[in-house]
From TrEMBL:
Site (Part of a proton relay during catalysis): 46, 109
Record family assignment: Belongs to the DapA family.
Active site: 135, 164
Main location: cytoplasm
Gene (name only): dapA
Upper taxonomic lineage: Bacteria, Pseudomonadati, Bacteroidota, Sphingobacteriia, Sphingobacteriales
EC category name: lyase
Functional note: Catalyzes the condensation of (S)-aspartate-beta-semialdehyde [(S)-ASA] and pyruvate to 4-hydroxy-tetrahydrodipicolinate (HTPA).
UniProt-annotated location(s): Cytoplasm
GO terms for cellular component: cytosol
Record's protein name: 4-hydroxy-tetrahydrodipicolinate synthase
Superkingdom as given in the UniProt entry: Bacteria
Keyword terms, alphabetized: Amino-acid biosynthesis, Cytoplasm, Diaminopimelate biosynthesis, Lyase, Lysine biosynthesis, Schiff base
Length: 295
């Protein structure tokens, strides 16, 4: 389980100005993150604009990511949806070469009951060739996976090894930490609450802002893993404003604006998303320069 402790990064998918996948930009990003000291990579989660990509594009991005990573870091693939049988087929057809786990979001739009969520993951667990990480993000799915359901899945299926929790509820985090199996990973799904969640015992973060600031963020997370929360607090606080700006006009428009400034890749997003406004882009640049000067 240690391979998924620390800083995971949910990769953006770089696009060329014509909207096609920018594979050179993706290569730059992967090397930027590895050089920045992150612990693992997540390919084609929400931040990767997966909802706008074709199956063929996803297949190529997963394969290219594994090729460029070249087993340097553990890789996780984001494979989820609200049609259980279709998600199961995607998992069955997934080329696992280079990948260690699958991150699968709780079904969205349908608003399943807790029993429906349990049965969805039970079905996926029984067919998946890789370990599974649950993903609870009620702000996007419009349904919450309760701590009871999370822990029930954790105890019933050994290949369900953790949960990315983005509910924003510390009551929920507390219950999961109290009731989960010892080796089940609670992973932060929100950058701003990483430090306090790790103080409760969370294993780390699957980060968005780590795309742009991998060294600064992973250094902070490593201090948390070592129990040095006093030492981690200044870094945590220094990232508060950048994080706020990165999400001010939605994800990943803000973080792609930051990556463009850093020369990693462009800031093109696919409709219905739009680029960060010029006002926001300028504010992001100023904040990056402030952080990197301090670092």
């Amino acid at each position: 389980m240690n391979k998924f402790q620390g800083t995971g990064v949910a990769l953006v998918t770089p696009f060329n100005t014509d909207g096609s996948v920018d594979y050179n930009g993706l290569k730059n990003l992967i090397n930027h993150l590895i050089d920045g000291g992150v612990d693992y990579l997540v390919s084609l989660g929400t931040t990767g604009e997966t909802a706008t990509m074709t199956k063929d594009e996803k297949k190529k991005v997963w394969a290219y990511t594994a090729e460029i990573n070249d087993n340097r870091l553990p890789l996780v693939a984001g494979i989820g949806g609200n049609n259980t049988l279709a998600v199961a087929e995607d998992i069955k057809n997934f080329d696992t070469t280079g990948y260690s786990a699958i991150l699968s979001v709780s079904p969205y739009y349908n608003k399943p009951t807790q029993e429906g969520i349990y049965q969805h993951y039970k079905y996926l667990s029984e067919i998946s060739p890789l370990d599974l990480i649950l993903y609870n993000v009620p702000g996007r799915t419009m349904s919450n996976m309760s701590p009871e359901t999370t822990c029930r899945l954790a105890y019933d299926f050994k290949n369900i090894i953790g949960t990315k929790e983005a509910s924003g509820s510390f009551d929920q985090f507390n219950q999961i930490m109290r009731d989960k199996p010892e080796d089940f990973l609670l992973i932060s799904g929100d950058d701003p609450v990483t430090l306090p969640m790790m103080a409760l015992g969370a294993a780390g973060i699957i980060s968005v802002i780590g795309n742009a600031l991998p060294k600064q963020f992973s250094d902070m997370v490593r201090k948390c893993l070592a129990g040095d929360f006093k030492g981690a607090t200044p870094a945590h606080l220094s990232l508060v404003e950048f994080t706020r700006l990165a999400f001010a006009e939605g994800n990943p428009a803000g973080i792609k604006s930051a990556l463009k400034h850093l020369g990693v890749c462009g800031d093109t997003v696919r409709l219905p998303l739009v680029k960060a406004s010029s006002t926001l882009a300028e504010a992001i640049v100023k904040e990056i320069e402030k952080i990197t000067v301090v670092a």
